[in-house]
Amino acid sequence: MARYFDVHPQDPQPRSVRQVVDILREGGLIAYPTDSCFALGAMLGNADAKDRIVRIRHLDDKHHFTIVCHDFSQLGQLVQLDNATFRAIKAATPGSYTFIVPATAEVPRRLLQPKKRTVGVRIVDHPVACAILEELGEPMLSSTLLMPGEEEPMVDGWAIKEALDHQIDAVIDSGECGTEPTTVVDFSAGYPQVTRVGAGDPSRFE
Predict the structure, then answer these.
(1) DSSP line for 77-138
(2) What percentage of the chain carries pLDDT values higher than 90?
(3) 140 φ, ψ to 5°?
């Protein structure tokens, strides 16, 4: 049964944040708010949680998993960026964007897109997500909480708990955080291609 945490959207309670991070470190899978919508999150090295996300969302092997970072220094250790890509991503973060870029050896192979060896990365801009990442001290595996057959992500914490009570380990609820996933920008070809229009303004990459 998933634990439910009711946290303040701007000033999350440190005790709750520590308890959430303990769940992550013990191998848990959480539902948490971001600056675009709710997402599922786990430790990068947690292979079981990755498989659980695949089962919950009915994902195929073409899906790009996302690594959520607290800051640009964390992101820089995970991906290979040329100068132009670095500047473009730096100018748009933190924010509601996911960037598809070539990964470094620091990223577990099971998280890579098999053919391109790429991964999605983002720097989140939500006080609760930032507090979790800061306490955790490392990036987190993440995937939009979009259920199979649905067009919009789940938005209500209690509804998430009810639907996924026996499939995840915690729900962190700070109120509604939006219904649009991130805007996805693919840099794998060496230039930006907007492959999904979402919460982030796509015009800066078009």
Answers:
(1) TTB---HHHHHHHHHT-SSSEEEEEEB-TTS-GGGSBTTTTEEEEEE---HHHHHHHHHHTS
(2) 81
(3) -130, 140
Amino acid identity for residue 80 in this structure: Q
Q: Give the SS3 label for residue 201.
A: coil
Rounded Cα distance between 182 and 35, Å, is 9
pLDDT category at 109 given cuts 50, 70, 90 is: confident
- Distance separating alpha carbons of residues 7 and 30, to the nearest angstrom: 14
Residue 94, preceding peptide bond in cis (omega within 30° of 0): yes
Residues 29-53: tens digit of each pLDDT: 999 999 999 999 999 999 999 999 9
Place of tokens 């945490």: 5
Q: Tell whether the model's pLDDT for residue 114 goes beyond 80.
A: no
**Alpha-carbon separation of residue 185 from 96, 148, 162 (angstroms):** 11, 23, 33
Give pLDDT, residue 206: 86
What confidence tens digit (pLDDT) does each residue in 39-98 have?
Answer: 999 999 999 999 999 999 999 877 888 999 999 989 988 999 999 999 999 999 999 999
Give the list of residues 6+ apart from residue 57 with CB closer than 8 angstroms, or none.
40, 63, 143, 146, 147, 148
Contact in structure between 10 and 177 (CB atoms under 8 Å): no
